[in-house]
Amino acid sequence: MSDALRPMGRPRLYEQVIERLREYVSGAGLGIGDRLPAERDLAQRLGVSRASVKQAIVVLEVQGLVEVRHGGGTYLAKGTLDVEPVERLVERRRRLPDVLDAREAVETKLAELAAERRTTADLDSLEAALDFMRDEIAEGADGAEGDRRFHSAVAAAAHSAMLADFMRSIAEPVAESRTESLRQPGRPPRSLRQHLAIFDAIGRGDGRRAAAAMRRHLRSVAEVRLLTWDPDDEPR
After folding, report:
1. Whole-model pTM?
2. By the 8 A CB rule, do 64 and 183 touch?
3. In which region does residue 53 sit, left (phi positive, over 0), alpha (psi from -120 to 50) or beta (all else)?
4. Which of 9, 11, 142, 232 has an alpha carbon within 20 to 30 A of 120's alpha carbon?
5. What percent of the chain stands above pLDDT 90?
């Protein structure tokens, strides 16, 4: 039987708040660094609870569109509030823990093997990836392409065809975890420093140290705002 006449869902209240905020930012001509009205003011003007406004702000923060400075207000981190569908965000929230588990399990071993098996050409590739990421960050980008190149270079330096194939098979969810991590405030330069520590250990041929440095890095990657968001916690 067709489900075309299934009950229609209604937008969550905080989704409606997000849409009003998007219209407000666009109409007021606000840009990066501009401050949004206080949550109390927004709640009064929109005729909703502060809890609904807070949940809307959380969703915007999760997507890297605003920066919440505790005690200092909420500021635009992007030029618009064009959000991705909440359903897509929920799906990514659901699968992210598994992706992070897989990355820690496999990439720590790849770093260990890379330290034991790397060639001069491998070290050159790792250093080139670091230089690329450093340039990206210096230009104001998040360093995502340099990050991808570095982790790919570590996998190649391990000289393990099966592990490399596995990493290629999960490239898309890994890219999602990279995006989530690098959109955290202050994360790109921190990630670069962690990559440098991994590179140093690989260069020294110290497998244990390389694995430990990679593990620390990936646990930092797991510290993302998305995982603290409960999509079912809908205010009334």
Report:
1. 0.79
2. yes
3. alpha
4. 142
5. 64
φ/ψ of 51, rounded to 5, equals -65, -40
Q: How far apart are CA 219 and CA 190, in angstroms?
A: 13
Phi, psi of 66 (to 5 degrees): -135, 160
Q: For 211-226, what is each residue's pLDDT tens digit?
A: 999 999 999 999 988 8
Report the C-alpha gap between 86 and 63 in whole angstroms: 10
Residue 34: which of 79, 70, 69, 82 has the closest Cα? 79
| Spatial distance between the Cα atoms of 149 and 128, rounded to a whole number of angstroms | 9
Q: Which amino acid is at 49?
A: S
Please, what's the b/e burial string for 187-205 (b: 16 or more CB within 10 A of its CB; e: otherwise)?
A: bbeebbebbbbbbebbbee
- pLDDT tens for 13-67 read 888 898 999 999 988 888 898 999 999 999 999 999 998 899 899 889 888 888 8
Nearest 5°: the CA angle 32, 177, 197 is 95
At 201, the pLDDT band (50, 70, 90 cuts) reads: very high
